[in-house]
Amino acid sequence: MTGQLLVFAGSLAGVAFLVLVSRWLGLGRGARIADEAQACDLADNALCGFSAEHVTLAVDGRAALLCDSQGRIMVLVPHGALFVARLLDRTARALRNGTQLTVTGSDPTFPPTILDLGLEAEAWERRINAPEG
Fold it and tell me: Which of 71, 73, 70 is nearest to 105 (CA)?
């Protein structure tokens, strides 16, 4: 019985040590977009030639909305330590609640995204919900 307790205590200490080391290294933190330039780079990497004219980062830096000269709108959201980008089509909808914007696209693999855009939420809601033309 004592041997089992020693093995359990050793295992518990090992796990605690690994947790502390991972925190010290900064592992496990959510991905963040540092600035508009990084958002533009991420968008261009996701869709070669996407050159954003309007960029708004979420208040927490965990997402962004971008619009290019052709009126295409892209949303960037974290997926693990990386970012996923999706172009929104004309069926996409945005619903604002204060400074938060819930963006829903037609892609079933891309769930609705909630972004806190601060004062820019209303402008993006109009842009996303605007009729084509």
Answer: 73
**Contact by Cβ (8 Å): 43, 76:** yes
The full DSSP string for 88-104 is E-TT-EEEEETTEEEEE
- Strand partners for 94: 103
Q: Which residues contact 54 (CB under 8 A, 6 or more apart)?
A: 66, 67, 127
Q: How many CB atoms lie within 10 A of CB 104?
A: 16
Structure pTM? 0.76
| pLDDT tens profile 82-125 | 899 999 998 999 999 999 999 998 888 888 999 999 999 999 99
Phi–psi pair at 24, nearest 5 degrees: -60, -35
End-to-end CA distance of the chain: 76
What distance in Å separates the CA atoms of residue 37 and residue 71, rounded to the nearest whole number?
19
